[in-house]
Amino acid sequence: MKKSDFHFDLPQRLIAQAPLAERSASRMLVLDVPHKRWQDSGVRALPDFLREGDLLVFNDTRVLPARLFGRKETGGAVEILLERVTGAHEARAQMRVSKKPAAGSRILLDDGTPVEVLGREDAFFRLRFDTDEPLEKVLLRVGHMPLPPYIERADSAEDAERYQTVFAREPGAVAAPTAGLHFDDALLEALRARGVDSGYVTLHVGAGTFQPMRAERIEDHHMHREWLNVGAQLIEKIHRTRAAGGRVIAVGTTVVRALESATVEGELRPFAGETQIFIFPGYRITSIDGLLTNFHLPESTLLMLVSALAGREFMLDAYRHAVEAEYRFFSYGDAMLILPQGV
């Protein structure tokens, strides 16, 4: 199977550049997979498509202000995007700079904090922040929210709140689990009133999620590593839900990747550690019964994941409809609810 098998034409104007005034005001395309049909709806109608006894699983990761600006000792401007924090004062990062710095060179952040370049690992630099402060405190003081590269503007004060879910509590991500951005307190309360339960995984989304797939043959692609935790309490909830006839609905592809990474020989088990799982058509997803997700980039690994759940041709047909109906795409865009068992 080729990367180009997952191409679709997307007008630039449909890429959402800012959030809507209200989180839950987004549109939602609902896919009835068995009957190969869809309907246009809205995120606020999500409770109407769920049943009493269903379980929504969210990713409670919290986005760090992981974009930093500074200068090399020689004076050249540097933009740093952390990929992941690896210690109290160390991190892996991408760097935008005119000439790549060598190991041992230093960068001064805008507030004067010195950063030493320890070396390189593939496309990433290993950095050490020479300060007594924990790295998270440095980021909170001088960092910017790491908006995706397709949002063509600088981050604002509004993004500090809106590029973060209302249930974010475990710091470590450098990109938001964007399906969760649609939920506000009113929608969560409507879901509780419907009898829908909730649970959480943690998967710290890395900057590698925005790296384009370079291999044309998708089997040759290697995913970036991300850290996750699927706890015993959630697994118990999932077992109870399914035993009672309820459905497990993942909120976001990160939840699918976390739960599938914690599935061993068909059995969901507690797991904390790294994953490089790559889900594409031919892979059978067993840990969930539905998925709420945003619209993804053409030829991306996330489009391949949702195609594994709903079928490539049907998914691309639905994407073409979304383009024609002018849905908003990507992180601040609209949502899609995929129901493999039907509406």
From TrEMBL:
Cell compartments where the protein resides: Cytoplasm
Broad EC category: transferase
UniProt keyword Cytoplasm, yes or no: yes
Main localization category: cytoplasm
Pathway(s) per entry: tRNA modification; tRNA-queuosine biosynthesis
Cellular component GO terms, alphabetical: cytoplasm
Chain's role: Transfers and isomerizes the ribose moiety from AdoMet to the 7-aminomethyl group of 7-deazaguanine (preQ1-tRNA) to give epoxyqueuosine (oQ-tRNA).
NCBIfam families the record matches: PRK00147.1, queA
Subunit structure: Monomer.
Similarity annotation: Belongs to the QueA family.
Descriptive protein name: S-adenosylmethionine:tRNA ribosyltransferase-isomerase
Lineage: Bacteria, Pseudomonadati, Pseudomonadota, Gammaproteobacteria, Lysobacterales
